[in-house]
Please model this.
Amino acid sequence: MSTMTQQEKMLAGQLYQADDPQLQQAARRAYLLTRQYEAAYAADADAAQDVLRELLGALGDKVHIKPPLFVDYGSSIRIGAGTFVNYGLMALDVAAITIGEDVQIGPNVQLLTPTHPVEPGPRRDKWEAAKPIVIGDNVWLGGGAIVLAGVTIGENSVVGAGAVVTKDVPANVVVAGNPARILRRIG
Model:
């Protein structure tokens, strides 16, 4: 029998149960901070950066995120300098989400690290896991794009609006569709 907490299991990529009180408290904290960020942004976008720094695991210089922002915990999200995020980012950070420098993220993009068992029993028992997402430098994610658990998107690549990215994307390509596939190379 494991002595790991549900949070430790989650961070290790193992099956865990999200209704754990410690995880629920962390999720509630993140929810409250995202609401504080939205209110602070309405008053002064520059001053709101302090709330983002409290919410996120790491935040580079000159990052601009338009609210609303939706996260599970926030603490597993790292965003590089010069990144711009349009309205409605949903970044479910059950595992790490790493966003490089100078990334452009369109409205209503979803970064989804959680996974669930295919077998009905464990799924019914509310077990889940997660795999990290990595977005390289200078990537553009078009509006409504969905990036699934375990995906890495290489630097300089473009993900078309509405694409569903189910597997890794190499550097310097344009992908689109469901599932996303390479349409052309850049440069």
Remarks:
- The chain has a mean pLDDT of 96.
- The helical segments are 6-11, 21-43, 49-55, 120-124.
